[in-house]
Structures are given as structure tokens and as C-alpha cells.
From TrEMBL:
Record's keyword annotation contains Nucleus: yes
Family, per entry: Belongs to the ETS family.
Lineage: Eukaryota, Metazoa, Chordata, Craniata, Vertebrata
Family annotation (Pfam families): Ets, SAM_PNT
Gene: LOC107724522
UniProt entry tagged with the keyword Isomerase: no
A Gene Ontology cellular-component term: nucleus
Top-rank taxon: Eukaryota
Domain ETS: 245-328
Alphabetical GO biological process terms: cell differentiation; negative regulation of transcription by RNA polymerase II
Protein function: May function as an androgen-independent transactivator of the prostate-specific antigen (PSA) promoter. Binds to 5'-GGAT-3' DNA sequences. May play a role in the regulation of the prostate gland and/or prostate cancer development. Acts as a transcriptional activator for SERPINB5 promoter.
All residue ranges annotated as the PNT domain in the record: 136-220
Entry GO MF terms: DNA-binding transcription factor activity, RNA polymerase II-specific; sequence-specific DNA binding
Subcellular location: Nucleus
Name this polypeptide is given: SAM pointed domain-containing Ets transcription factor
DNA sequence: TAACAGGAGCTTT
DNA sequence: AAAGCTCCTGTTA
């Protein structure tokens, strides 16, 4: 419940992507809050009920504002405007070091401590909530699309679609009507606008409009990514239907789903096809499961990978590193 | 100590 | 026969 309230606020503060794909420390914080079941610390929602405050949603996110250094500008704005209202207790700034940058640290310097059981449970609960949130967002968008008879992807909108979407959003957030200010714009124009551009056209509603558009953009982006994945998945499935799966295909499958397997195998450089096996035992176990070889281990799996050297399927990257391999023909 | 390289024989499909 | 599996010796970081 707390998470959903939090998510709702995130949407209005243009941070959907960060909510759905949180980075290191934020991720741990979410996970801990969820697994403790006390939710994130929410302070009261007075500002939101106060009609005068519509332009500044989200300033009561006590947990949020310490987390993103890159949001400094936004923070300053929020902090300034929040001095007049009671925003409740703040969490002290989080100084804890990045101990376990698993998925979001593409660098080679990462030290992949194997996650504890507790962390895995936290991770899982976070994933569940995330998929719930995503599901709700997509449902809302789908409903709106049906109602307005527009496509979910803002990039495809014509001027009329933009106007419909504006009307809808105004209705949703009880904003004053600002359609005229956006009269001449199609979806592409709208998507390319910065928050500053929005502000110039509509000083009162720029933040909400821009944030809400960002949700739609993110949703479209996710949908696209999803169908891409499905295509690759079915391609890999159909191209070898009946035939046993090859090890390199299996590794590709895992790499395709960083959300599920990013802890044990991940891209270091997707373009060049360079990947790293973070948890050799785990990957071997998965491979053994797939091939029904309970005695599989990394020693044997890596021997199979080495067979690919001669065949030109996988090789060691130019600068050889432990547990790092490279697809000779990256997709 | 774990990962790496590669030979050799065996098994599964 | 292809693609791994298994076991092994020896090397490297």
C-alpha cells in the first residue's frame, strides 16, 4: 500500500523510470521497506489536498529526496517550496556505501559479492511489487487509449490525439484547460519537449503534464522492449524447435532477461557481445537443470564454452578476464 | 584456490 | 555425426 502511494507520487514527479529501474542503494532501500512490511515512511498528504499546491506534488516524499544526487535541481526546488508546509520527519541522508552493485554497475571494478538469502528475498519482493506497479500503469494507459481511441505510444499521435490526451490528463489531475497552448503540436513534438518547454507553454501545469507524458513514454518504451524480447525468445524457440538447445543459446537467453538472471550473468558490453558470468555455480546449475544433468558444474560448462573457441561462436575478449567471454557474432 | 586451456573417451540425441 | 558430458593434466592469476 505504501509502495503504491509512493509510486503514485513518483509518477507525478517524473521519476517513473527510476521507480521501475532503481539503482543500487535505492533498490536496497525499497526492498528493505517492502520486506519489513512497514512500507516506506510516508508523511502526511496535506499538501496534496490543498488545492493551491497542485503544481508541486511529491514534496512529501521523505524517503525519496536523499537518494538521487542527479536530481539535485529538482530537490532544491522541492525543498524550497516545502519549507512552508509541514513535510514531517526526514530520513537522515544515506551514507551507506555501495556494497552490492549487482545489476546496475556495468563497470569491471564491481565486486560481486554473492547475495545473501535475505537479499534475494528482498530482491524478489521488490520485483513483485514492481511488476504490480507496471501492470497498473499499463492497465490505466490501456483504459485511457480505449476511451480516447488513441495509440499508447505518444510518438504516433497526431495533433488531435495530443489534444485528446491533454483533455484526459487535465481531467485526471483537475488541471485548468491548457489545450490551446499545445494546439499545433503532434506527438513527436510533444515527446521532444523538455520540462522547460512545457513551462513556457503552460506555467501552472508543466510539471504534471510533463511527468504524466513521461509515464506514457516509459510505458511505450517498456512495451517495445517487451515485444522485442518475446520476438527473440520465440525466434530462439522456433529456430530449434524439437532440437536440444545449445549452450550459447542458453547463455543468450539468460542475458536477455537481466531482471531474472542479472545476478548470475550480465552484459559488460552488449554491442560487442562481451558478458560476464557473475555466479558460475548458479549458471552451471541452471544449465544442468535445462539439460537434465544434475552433475553439471562450472568446470564442465566452461569446457563446453571452450569448445566454441574453435567453432568461432564464443571467444575470450581481447583483454582476457576471469569469467568474461565474448560472442564472436553479437546480434 | 578458482579459473583457464585443451586432450581424450563416452553419452545422448 | 554433432554437441555435450566427464575426467583429466597442467597452467595461470
Amino acid at each position: 500500500k505504501a509502495y503504491f502511494a509512493f509510486a503514485d507520487d513518483c509518477f507525478k514527479t517524473n521519476c517513473l523510470r527510476k521507480l521501475l529501474f532503481p539503482t543500487g542503494s535505492l533498490k536496497r532501500r525499497f526492498s528493505k521497506a517492502i520486506s519489513r512490511e512497514d512500507g516506506l515512511e510516508m508523511v502526511d498528504h496535506k499538501p496534496r489536498l490543498d488545492g493551491s499546491d497542485r503544481g508541486h506534488p511529491g514534496l512529501y516524499l521523505s524517503c525519496f529526496d536523499m537518494l538521487f544526487t542527479e536530481d539535485a535541481a529538482w530537490l532544491v526546488r522541492v525543498s524550497d517550496s516545502s519549507t512552508s508546509t509541514d513535510v514531517g520527519p526526514r530520513l537522515e541522508p544515506c551514507q551507506e556505501p555501495e556494497q552490492c552493485p549487482v545489476i546496475d554497475s556495468p563497470g569491471l571494478g564491481a565486486s560481486p559479492l554473492s547475495p545473501t538469502l535475505e537479499e534475494q528475498v528482498e530482491e524478489r519482493s521488490l520485483e513483485q511489487v514492481q511488476s504490480l506497479v507496471v501492470g497498473e500503469v499499463l492497465k490505466d494507459i490501456e483504459t485511457a487509449c480505449k476511451l480516447l481511441n488513441i495509440t499508447p505510444d505518444p510518438m504516433e499521435w497526431n495533433c488531435g490525439n495530443v489534444q485528446k490526451w491533454l483533455l484526459w490528463t487535465e481531467h485526471l489531475y483537475r488541471l485548468p484547460q491548457v489545450g490551446k497552448a499545445f494546439q499545433d503540436l503532434d506527438g513527436k513534438d510533444l515527446c521532444s519537449m523538455s520540462e522547460e518547454d512545457f513551462r513556457q507553454r503552460s506555467p501552472q501545469c508543466s510539471e504534471t503534464l510533463h511527468a504524466h507524458l513521461d509515464i506514457w513514454k516509459s510505458a511505450a518504451w517498456m512495451k517495445e522492449r517487451c515485444s522485442e524480447g518475446e520476438e527473440l525468445w520465440s525466434e530462439a524457440d522456433s529456430s530449434c524447435s524439437g532440437q536440444p538447445i545449445h549452450l550459447w543459446q542458453f547463455l543468450r537467453e539468460l542475458l536477455l532477461k537481466p531482471h531474472s538472471y542479472g545476478r548470475c550473468i550480465r552484459w559488460l558490453n552488449k554491442e560487442k557481445g562481451i558478458f560476464k558470468i557473475e555466479d558460475s555455480a548458479h549458471v552451471a546449475r541452471l544449465w544442468g537443470l535445462r539439460k537434465n544433468r544434475p552433475a553439471m558444474n562450472y568446470d564442465k560448462l566452461s569446457r563446453s564454452i571452450r569448445q566454441y573457441y574453435k567453432k568461432g561462436i564464443i571467444r575470450k575478449p581481447d583483454v582476457s578476464q576471469r569469467l568474461v567471454y565474448q560472442f564472436v557474432h553479437p546480434v
